[in-house]
Amino acid sequence: MNYRGYLFWLFFRIILLVGTLLSLVYTVYKDKTIYAVIIGIGILYLIINTYSFVKRRFVAMDDFFEAVKYRDFSRWFPEDRGPKDIRFLYTGFNEINRTIKEINSQNEAQYVYLQKILEMVDIGIIAYNLESGEVLWSNDSFGEILDVPSFKNIRFVENRKPELFNTIFETFHREPDSISIALQNDKIKILISDTVFQVEDDAFKLIVIQNIDDTLNRNESESWKKLLSVMTHEIMNSITPISSLADTLQKNLQLAIETPEENTLELDDINSGIKTIKNRSEGLLKFAKTYRSLSKVTNLNLQRVKLSELFNNIQLLMEPSIKAKNIAIAFNITTPKLELDIDMHLIEQVLINLILNAVDACKNEVHAEIKIVASQNTNRDIVIRVFDNGSGIPQDILDNIFVPFFTSKATGSGIGLSLCKQIMLLHKGRIIVKSIEGEGSVFSLVF
C-alpha cells in the first residue's frame, strides 16, 4: 500500500537525521570543526526536506477538506505529476469526488422523479416550516383545491382567508378527516390528513388534502352507467325469448284464423305459452326490483320448487329460439322428484344467462348441442349443470370470468356471470366452471 512507502521514507529520514545528529556530537567532541560544519549543513537540509515531505501531504489533505467544506466536488486533483505518494493521494481524492457527484446526481434524479409524480396526482400536498411558515414544497393540486394562487409562506393564506387558514393549517388532523370548506360561494368536501416531522433543528408539517366531492361524483356517475348496463343486459336476455315465444304464438294464431281447416288451434299450447310469458314477465319485474338493492338482500323469496317445473318453464321459454338457430337443446333430471328451496325467478335468470352464453359459444359449431342436467351427488348436494360443445373458454381468462364487468366479447357487458355468482351466493350455493378450449364448457350450480 502507498502509505507503507510514505512511512518507510519518513522513517528513513528520521533515522538519517538521528545518525547525522550523532555524527555532529562526535565531531564536536573530537574538535573537528570543518566536519562539524559540513554535518550541521547536512542536518539543516534533512530537517527542511523532512518538513517539506510531511507538509505537502497535509497541504493536499487540507485542500481536499476545504473543498468538502464548501461542497466543491467539481475540483480535480492532478494525478500525473508530483511525488508518487501525493499522486496516489490525489487519485483517492478524485475517486471520492466522483462517487459523491454520482450520489448527488442520483439524489437529484430521484427528487425530480418524485416531484413530477407528486405534481401529476390530483391530491394536494404541502410541507412547511412550523415556526416561520415558509413553504418547503407544494404541488399545484393543493392550490387548485383550495382555490389560492402559488405562495411561499402560509401567512399569505392567513391574510387572504383566515377561516380557511385555521381549518387547514392551524387545526391538526392526525387521522384522515372529512371536512367541508367554503370556497367563494360554494362548499366542497375534502379529506385531510397531516403529520409533523423533524429535520435537524426545524419542525415541519406535511398536509395532504383530496377533493372527495369530485371523486364521489365520478364514482356515482360510473355506478349509474354500470347499473344501466347491467339492467339493459338482463332485460334483453329475458325479452328476447319472450318476443320469440310471442312471435311463435302469433304465427300459430294467424294460421288458425286464415286456414282453420288445415291448422287446428291448440288452446292448451296457447295457454301454456301465455302463462310462460306472464311468469317470465313477472320474474323480470322481480329481478329489476331485486337487483336495485341486490347487495343489501338478506331474505330471498324462497319457495319449494320442483326441478321438473323449473325446467319446463325454461324449456318452453328458450327452446323455440334456440332450435331456430339449429342448436339442439335437451333437459334431463337424473333423479326423479328433485326439489329445491329457491327464489324461482332469480334462478330462472341464472339459467337463462348460462343457456344464452352456451348458445353464443355454439354458434359456429356444425352439430351444436346444449344439455341442462339436474342430479344429486354423493354429498346430497343438488347440482344443475349446463353443458355445451362450443368453443370453450381460454385458460388465461378462465379465472376472471366471474369478475364484474370483465368480458372477452366485443359486445359483452361483463356482468352476466358475475350476477349469476352473486345470486348463487345469496342462495348459499356456488357456481363452478370447467372448460376446455375447442371442446366446450360445463357450468355447475351447486345447492
Question: Care to describe what's here?
Answer:
- It is a single chain.
- With 447 residues, the protein is α+β, with helices and mostly antiparallel strands.
- It has three domains: 2-106, no CATH class; 121-212, PAS domain (Beta-Lactamase, 2-Layer Sandwich); 266-446, Histidine kinase-like ATPase, C-terminal domain (Heat Shock Protein 90), CATH 3.30.565.
- 55% of the residues lie in helices and 19% in strands.
- The longest helix is centred in the middle third of the chain and has 47 residues, at 212-258.
- It is elongated and about 165 Å long.
- The two termini are 82 Å apart.
- It holds the Pfam family HATPase_c.
CATH homolog superfamily of the largest domain: Histidine kinase-like ATPase, C-terminal domain
- Binned, the helix content reads 55-70%
**How are helices and strands ordered from N to C?**
HHHEEHHHEEEHHEHEEHEEHHEE
- Secondary-structure-based class equals alpha+beta
Sheet with most strands: strand arrangement? 2-1-5-4-3
Please give the domain count: 3
Q: What is the name of the CATH topology of the largest domain?
A: Heat Shock Protein 90
Cα radius of gyration in angstroms: 45 Å
Q: Beta-strand level of the residues, as a percent range?
A: 15-25%
In CATH, the architecture of the largest domain is 2-Layer Sandwich
The count of strands amounts to 12
Short structural summary:
The protein is α+β, with helices and mostly antiparallel strands and 447 residues long. The chain has helices at 2-29, 33-69, 84-120, 140-146, 155-160, 162-170, 212-258, 267-292, 307-323, 344-362, 395-398, 416-426, and strands at 124-129, 135-138, 177-183, 186-199, 202-211, 303-306, 328-333, 339-342, 369-376, 382-388, 430-436, 440-446.
